[in-house]
Amino acid sequence: MSVLLALFFGIITAAGAYIPASVSGHLSLFEKLFSVKLHTQSLVLLGVMLETASLGAIIIVYRRDILQIARDTAAYINPDTRPEKIPQNVRTAFLLTAATAPLVPAIFLLRAFQNIFLNFTVVSLAFIVSGVVIYAAEKMTSPGKKKASRLGFGTALLLGLAQVAALIPGLSRLAVTTSAARAAGIEKESALRFSYLLSIPAIFGSLILSVVSAVRAKIDWSVFPAYFAGFAVALVLGVFAIRFAQRVWKSEKLVYSAYYSAGLGILIFLGSLLF
């Protein structure tokens, strides 16, 4: 693989940290248009490195939140330091755990039905649904006032199911989880933060499976320098993308992502019928 192609994948991965449009859907589209096999053994290493970059970007940006949640949870577990009331960060940790639970069996089911989900028609419909979800959240949802830590555990499970749906190429994890949180009355900034934190165990779990696949695939390490370029771009741009998202999330400009996603889905669907 050329360095330019690795850089392209890195940019797409970083863009997914800000733009509520599916990264996996774009890569599937790229595979179909340019006859590039993205799921061959030679690209397993790149997948691992890009997932690591995505995880690293989120951890860098939210490192203080993650450390504080870990400290408060550790203090709560310890009977000697446990406060009378459940701290907000501890409740957030419990909610994230509950929301992550549906993802465990779903990952294995996805692998069983992977060929179906990579179908061009399925990807196009997923892009359209993603656009509709973003539009509905922007135009039809009342401004939320609650913090994500005030969610009920049943609602957290529903957010977990929304993240499961986003495993389908074309559906954006960021779009469906933040939209679902906002529909539950969570304010925009808190919904965005919860969505990013929720993605950490999801990406980490996917990373472990990818590492296992990479070991079994007997990777050709000669491609590492080209892949590292994609990793570096995804990590650096990913950090900037998340920071930018935090600043502009209050605006209604995200509706343009809805138009883009739905429009692209319609074009892909029409193309699948004509060609």
Explain what you see.
This protein is mainly alpha-helical and 275 residues long. The chain has one domain. The protein contains 13 helices and no strands. It has helices at 3-15, 23-34, 44-61, 63-77, 88-100, 103-112, 114-117, 120-139, 153-165, 173-183, 188-217, 224-248, 255-274. Helix 9 (153-165) packs antiparallel against helix 10 (173-183). The chain starts with a helix and ends with a helix.
Keywords:
single chain; 275 residues; mainly alpha; 0% strand
How would you sum up this structure in a few lines?
It contains 13 helices and no strands. The chain has 275 residues and is mainly alpha-helical. The protein has one domain.
Write the layout of secondary structure elements.
Blueprint: H1 3-15, H2 23-34, H3 44-61, H4 63-77, H5 88-100, H6 103-112, H7 114-117, H8 120-139, H9 153-165, H10 173-183, H11 188-217, H12 224-248, H13 255-274
Helix pairs in contact: 1-3, 1-12, 2-8, 3-11, 3-12, 4-5, 5-9, 5-11, 8-10, 8-13, 9-10, 10-11
